[in-house]
Amino acid sequence: MRVDILFKLRNNPHLYRYLSENSYWYKYLNRDPASIYLMEEEMKKKYKLTTADKINNLGSKLNLIRSFMELMK
C-alpha cells in the first residue's frame, strides 16, 4: 500500500477502525489507491458522519432541549 494512503489512514481514526472492521478494503486500496475516497464515503455513511446526519442530529438535540424547556415552564 502506498505511503500517502497509509498516512491518511493513520491520521483518521474513523478510517482506520473502518478498515480493520472491513478488511476487504485492503485489496481495493492495494490495487487502486484512488478508492480511498469510496471507502471514506462508505465509512461516513456507516458511522453517520455525513452532513445530513449531522444536521439531523443537531435537530434532534434542539427538539430535546425545546421539550425540556417546555417542561421547566
Write structural notes for this entry.
With 73 residues, the protein is mainly α. It has one domain (3-72). It has five helices and no strands. It has helices spanning 3-11, 13-21, 24-31, 36-46, 51-72. Helix 1 (3-11) crosses helix 2. The chain is rod-shaped. The mean pLDDT is 94.
List strands and helices in order, with pairings.
Layout: H1 3-11, H2 13-21, H3 24-31, H4 36-46, H5 51-72
In short:
81% of the residues lie in helices and 0% in strands. The protein is an all-alpha fold.
How is the main sheet built? none
Measured distance between first and last alpha carbons: 59 Å
> H/E element string?
HHHHH
What count of structural domains?
Answer: 1
Task: Describe this protein with a few key phrases.
73 residues, mainly alpha, 5 helices
